[in-house]
Amino acid sequence: MTTTARPPATHAHHPSTSTTSSAPPIWPTLLSTVSTSSRLPRKQLLLLGGTPQSQTDLIATLAPARPPPPSRRDRTRTPRPVPLANAHALGYTYRDLPTSDGEDVLARLNVYTLPDASGAYAPLVKRLLTAETIPHTSVAVLLDWSRPWDFAAEVRAWVLLLKKALQGLGREEEDALDGNREAWMGRREEGQRSEIVDTVGGGKMPLGQGEFDEALGLQVNFVVGEVGEMERLERERGWKEGEFDFVLQFLRTVGLKLGAGVVYRAPGAEGEVRGVVLGGLVEEERGERVRHNVVDRESVVVPPGWDSWGKIRVLREGFDIEGFSRAWGVDLQDGGSTGMGEEDGGEATSTEALYAARIPNPKVEDRSAPKIEVEHTPDQIFMAAQAERLDAFRAEDEVTKKQKSQTRRTNAPDDNNGRPSMNEQIGPVQFNMGGIQYDADEALKRIKARTKQDTTQAQGTPERTRTRESTPYTPGSPPQFEAGKDIPVENLEAYFASLMKGGRGGSVQNSPRVQSPRVVQKGSGEGSSS
C-alpha cells in the first residue's frame, strides 16, 4: 500500500506579499500618540534647611493630595503616599501639581531637600543644575520662628552654598541663568506696571537702589514657618513690635538684593505660599498674581520683584538699610573667598554682628567643634600651683589674726563689740559699812590709777611728787585724812592693824583717838593724852 503526500492547500483569500509590506504599523503609532499626550512638564524644587517635619509640611502645602477618582471601582482605593527620604544628606521625592479644581495635573514636581548648609553638599547641588533644569528650578530657604536669632547666619550660609554650586558651570548653564534673570525682570516690570499706570518713557523701569545687585540666576524665596512661636517670644522674651519688624526688614533687604520673595506659613495661607514659591514655575489658569501683605504680622507676603528700599523704610524707622546692604555684599565676598562655614565674628561691618546687636542669641553656645585631645597638666606643676595658693591663703589668715589681736588690745576691757559694760547697765555701786558711805566705783578707779602709776615708775618714768593719798602709812602714826574725800582702803587696813598690835603690847596712850574718819587730824599730838 502506498501513500501519496498531498501538497498544502492554498486559500484564495490569502493576502499577497505586496499588500502586507505596504500596510503602516498601527500599534507603535498609537503608543507614541498616547505617550506624547500624557507627557507632563518637569519642575524642580530645592528645599534648604528646616527639619524633616517642616519640609514634609511644606511639600504637602505646595502639592496637596488629589481627590480619589470618580469611578466606582477605584473609589475604595486610597492613593499610596509617595515616600520622602529626607533624614540624611540629599533627600528626594516627587509630587504632581494639580490644578485649582484638582481635576488635572499641571506638572510633575521633583523635590530635593538638604538638612544643613555644609560645603560638602555643593557638588550634589551642582549636579542638579543643568541647562535643561535651571529654567524650571525654584529654591526655598526654610526658616523657623523658634530661632529668629539665627536668621542672618542661616540665610548667609545657604546663599554661599548656592554660589559655590554655581561656580564653574558651562556656557549653556550660564546662558540659562541669564535667561532666568531676564524672566525675573519681565515679571517685575509686569507687576509694577499694574500698580503704576504711566512709566518713564514707556521703556524698561530701572532698578532701584540695592535691588537685584546680588542675583544668583535662580528663583530664591524665604519661607518662614512656626508663626505661633511669635506669641511665645512676646510672652517669654519680652519682644515688641519693633523686634518683629526688624526681622522682617532684614529679610526683605536681603531678598531685594537676591530678587527673592518672603512669605510666612500662617494657617490658611496655603495659596499665598504656593504663589510665591511656585510662581515662576507654574502658571495658574486664571493668571492671578499674589497680593502683597506687610501689615499683618503673622501673614506676611512679599512677592519677588515687588519690594523696594522706600517700602522697607516705611515699615519702621531706624533700620539701617544702607549698612545692611553694604555689609551683606562684603560678607558674600569674604565668605566666597575663604570657604564655607566660616564665621566673621568680631567685624563691625558684618551682617551677623549688625543683626545680633538688635536680636541677640539668649543661649550663646560655643560653635567650635569638640576636640578629641584633652590638655592635661602634669601633676608636679598642678601641685606646685596648689601649694602657692595654699601659702597665699595661709598668709591672709595670719594677717587677719594679727588684726583681730590688735583690735582686742586697743579696745577697752569693758568694750564688747560696742555693747554697754556691766557698770553702765547696773549703775554705780555704793554701800554703807559701819556708818561710813562707801563708793566702790570711785575706790576701784583710784586703785586702777595707782596700779598704772606704779607700772609707769617701774618702766623708768620720773617719780611724781607724792601726795597724802599716795604716802604710805607708817605703823604707829595716826592716819591723816583730808576732809571731803573718801578714806583710802589701804590706810584703813594699816591703821586697824596698828591698833591690834598696840593693843597686844603697845601703849594705849600712843593710840590716836579718832572721833570720825572724815575729821582731819592736824597734829600728831592731838587726840592723845599728855
Automatic annotation (TrEMBL):
GO terms for biological process: microtubule cytoskeleton organization; microtubule-based movement. Coiled coil: none annotated. Residues 408-424 have a biased composition (Polar residues). The keyword ATP-binding applies. It is found in: Cytoplasm, Cytoskeleton. One of its GO terms (cellular component) is microtubule. Residues 1-26, 62-83, 396-428, 450-487, 501-530 are annotated as: Disordered. This is Dynein light intermediate chain.
